[in-house]
Amino acid sequence: MALIVHKYGGTSMGSTERIRNVAKRVAKWHRAGHQMVVVPSAMSGETNRLLGLAKELAPAAHTTAYARELDMIASTGEQVSVGLLAIALQAEGIDAISYTGWQVPVRTDSAYTKARIESIDDTRVRADLDAGKVVIITGFQGIDAQGHITTLGRGGSDTSAVAIAAAMKAAECLIYTDVDGVYTTDPRIVPEARRLHTISFEEMLEMASLGSKVLQIRSVEFAGKYRVPLRVLSSFTPWDIPLDEEAKSGTLITFEEDENMEQAVVSGIAFNRDEAKITVMGVPDKPGIAYQILGAVADANIDVDVILQNVSHDGKTDFSFTVHRNDYAKTIDLLKEKVVPHLGANEVVGDTKICKVSIVGIGMRSHAGVASRMFRVLAEEGINIQMITTSEIKTSVVIDEKYMELAVRALHKAFDLDQDAA
Ligand code: ADP
Ligand code: ASP
Ligand code: MG
What we know:
With about 425 residues, the chain is an alpha/beta fold. The chain has helices at about 15-30, 45-55, 65-75, 75-90, 125-130, 155-165, 200-210, 215-225, 245, 290-300, 330-345, 370-380, 405-415; strands at about 5-10, 35-40, 95-100, 105-110, 115-120, 135, 140-145, 150, 170-175, 200, 230-235, 250-255, 270, 275-285, 305-310, 315-325, 345-350, 355-360, 385-390, 395-400. The chain starts with a strand and ends in an 8-residue tail after the last helix. The radius of gyration is 23 Å and the shape is globular. The strands form 5 sheets. Strands 3-6-2-1-9-11-12-10 form an 8-stranded mixed sheet, with helices on both faces. Bound molecules: adenosine-5'-diphosphate (ADP), aspartic acid and magnesium ion (MG).
């Protein structure tokens, strides 16, 4: 008997029929003697619907007060889910109880729409588990020190589940979703993508941070920090498959590099369409420039990703970087108003039609020439590289958005990730 956390994503909770299936699956685990905590997302499309309503009525300035209300609104999607799942379990004859984030409580900071979990008090949940109940807790939401409802950013239910598993020292956290594990790349883009039986924590962290939305990055960070055994698996298998078989299915995130691991040079390909590129042109090439530009951006709480500065020919250079598309307009305005006039730069230009494609693999540590192979593949497809960034286990390029699928497919094949190559 162990304490197990299950997380079910939006598609898995997408209809009453699917919720009934989730209930039957959870009941199976409960009847096998496990203590069960379940963390569901809002029903698919619901968070978008709720945020869409808010957007229709939004004020011109996106203030903190506005962000607070977005969380108030978006958090209701998960509240409906937990209640529905609890009654579906009750219909299965299981004693089940649901809680919102604030009832647990799941405490977060006050960064509305992207709050971070600070602590979780598991007293109440543990008492219910000890009384034989299945406990269902909303994903995605928490409460800050002043009692305001917060949400954890899109895809945040993954993080709720892993954080609860960490706080309660669960034996395992199982992330049930609409694919049967972590693939070499998004199987919706590359049908030849292959499911990985295991993926190292470091690779998963890179894949998530570089755009693979199968796990929210913060959930992987939590799993790493607290060593939470984490598995991604399908919620679409028949609910009554043997528990042992289900428990071994999907993809396990591993923390130790063992010999049995699939040791490809490149393990996966990630892509991200959510960024935009900004270039400050004609910047004087002298000390302190990067700080003046990016310092102002950081002060406005805008995260910068890829950065590129070139050498100058005539004392002036161009300085480019990428930000999230949501921050694009704000960044351009900020630079035009506050930075360019003081710098003596010429102008600020931007491009929202870019994407970032990355190859990831711990095998890259011990193999030279992986990046150049990537560049060759892109050159052969006639794809121009606008920016490059590398780390020990990944290489990313920024390219024109219209070549994204072509680039991902070509790289997937070139690095022997296609199914038939395995
Ligand atoms: P959920 O609602 O269950 O949280 P998400 O839509 O957030 O599901 O995440 C699952 C989706 O992630 C899949 O449907 C798939 O399209 C996408 N995805 C992106 N990259 C990968 C990958 N490398 N492996 C598996 N799925 C991926
Ligand atoms: N419902 C939230 C979203 O759509 C959280 C989640 O699904 O993980 O982003
Ligand atoms: Mg998700």
